[in-house]
Give the backbone structure.
Amino acid sequence: MISLALSSLRFRTAAFLAIFVAVLLGSSLLAAAGGLLETGLRLNAEPQRLAAAPIVVTGRPAYHPPNGSGSVAYPERHGVDPALAGKLSRTAGVAEVVVDLSFAAMVAPGKDVLAGHPWTSAALTPYRLTSGQAPEVGQVVLDARLLDTAQPVSGNRRTARVGDKVRVIVSGQPREFTLAGIATPARRVDVPSIFFSAGDTRQFAEARVDALGIFPGKGTSAKDLAKRLELPAGVSALTGDDRGAAEFAGIATSLPLIILSGVFGGMVAVVMALVVSATIGLSVRQRRRELALLRASGATPGQVRKLVVAETMLVVVIALGAGLLLGRTMGRWIFGMLTGNGIVPSALRFDQSILPFAGAAILTLVLLRLTVGFAAGRAAAIRPIQALSEAAVPPVTVSRIRLIIGAVFAAATVGIGVSTIFMSPTNAAAIGGPAVLTGSIAVAVLGPVVIRALLGTRITKFLEGRGVSGILAVINLRVRSVQFAAILVPIMLASAIALGNIYSQTTQQKAAVEAYTDNLYADVVVTSSSGGIPADLAEQVRSTEGVSAASTLVRSKGWIEEPYDTGHTSDPWPLLGLDGPVYKGKVRAGSLDELKGSTIAIPPAAAKKLKVGIGDQLGVRLGDDALVKVRIVALVDGSSGYESLVLPSELLAQHTTTGLPSQLLVRTKDEEKVRQTDLQKWPGATIGDRELLSTDFDAGLGVDAWISYLLAAIAIAYTAIASINTIAVAVLDRRREFGLQRLSGSTRRQISKMLYLENLVVAAMGLVLGVVAACFSIFPIAIATRGWPIPSGPVWLLLAWVALVLLLVLPVTAIAGRLAMRPKPMDAVNSPAG
């Protein structure tokens, strides 16, 4: 059987090459998805600045809902009680406790916001002085890499030296310090540090402590000591690579990477199953005469089945081996794009052991073995005489089981689309996406029936008006709808995934940005690239002629825990911090003028659900894990599905990483005068249009958007390759037909025209069906997020996709047609298929 299978491979190179490429790419992507999953589960990130401390004690990096499931990384840095350092230093086995804290700082005129630390924390890396001395009050020590940026305040030299005055912006405020020394890290540290004296640090960072570095005594195991430390609730002792979570934001929960790898891997598996099944089905149907002859010569149905399975699985195994070899490169490439675009922290290490490869191999083999089994079953069960009579043009039939399966998936697509309309924007985005895949599966299962149904009177008349080539194209589309379904499925699938993902994401993104910006008044917006808006800058703008009102803006996320809000568990509430009359939402009760001190304004729906009202107290868990008690002073509306909790900006800023507002919203009487405000005193501060509101907010949505675009791009690439393969296989297999046509008087040009018409019609059907499948996801999401069924996104994307499909179909048709008609007509008629 194996020798017969190998002989068959020699004569059907095109068909098996198509299967080889599809499996190669699919298995490599599955291995890459497995690597992303393992990375998300392990969350290994080697510490850099804290690497010298065997144990790092810090606040828990992720929020775990008290009565819910899942977890989410805290949006702000979570510190520990300063008094904990003294307590831990008295623990048996602890040799030294080093306090670490960070605050926004940058060397002027630098461009990047860095971090300031106390000089005592230099031992956590460790940093060593290469010149100068430790800083005293009014002095700093700079990482040697910052010398190219630091410029002396006076003098003509471009580079500062020890003893020079340098300008450092601390928490948005420019200050002058004496350069006391220059230090270098003993190991790799990506972000340079600025070190201050203990006295200056207390002034800038108040009483906050970010982490404690614990150094065990001689002969004490770090892991054993970490288990013995008596820590308060919400504080963790980290060792090994887990220490990276205390240093790098975002390395706290595996949920984002698990979701990404799950969606990505699931999509790849479904696409591979649909595309490979179509290719295998096409290959098997093209060999019905060969298989019929085997049956007629005495082969049993089981032997025919084994032959088809053996030769196909032989190609699959070879392609799988090559795909697994490519899987590591593919995984690192995708992970590099994720880290390079800020989707996951760059410090996170990509882990891909043997498990992802084993999982990808098992899933691929099982998936394709089932696919090959279904394809081989019908060919093996057919009677020899019937097979010989049908070999030239197989019948266009779809079994009852396929009709039922197709109907189930079609109904699921409609059900998902309808139910999405009535969901919140967050749930709509999560639930509405699968409609693209269920719709694609329905079309893939019912492909031949769909082609014949779409080949209506208008299309038939249009083709017949193109002459003899058009008439032949109509006949072929009817009698060869099974073969053309193999071409239709990849085009339809790619169109549905590409357009569905992109337009769903642009629609959600547009709705979220509009909901956010429409709730805020702002004629002009003041921003700062130096860490935030200091109080003095805000006061200067407020006192500027032409300003009628101004408010600092702080953004974060949090949870209502007292009373417990079950509607926001792992999905936190958006928090807005304001201190001026810039909120547009309608006040249903109370007044925003009372938004001072420890107060809050909440949406009426939330108040009704929690059974609270004006004057009642809430316990809100803020982004730094602090539980604050606030009094309700107003019930305010927000855009449906995008409501926020509004707090005083001073209160909220105290619980953010920078400790400062991110923007200043200004309402003006004379916009031009305000724009001419002199901000030279504030390095990095700029005045711009209200579009800065959407720009800043939109940057936070880039993660979800980039994930959708990545999935769409990979699915497009996969199905594009599949489309090329199936078109080439289908056309090359018809060389005998073309030879007969040429012997009957048809010219090469007429045959080429017939091919163009056939594949253009199939491509158009695939585009239409893909758009329809995408609409079951796009339109309901648009209704759920924006209130009307009009998606957001540029029209040129749709036009560009149509052009791309044509650029795939037409050249491949031309090249494959030329190759199929290269032999002389008589030689083509007598040639074997494949």
Remarks:
- Residues 67 and 770 are 42 Å apart (CA to CA).
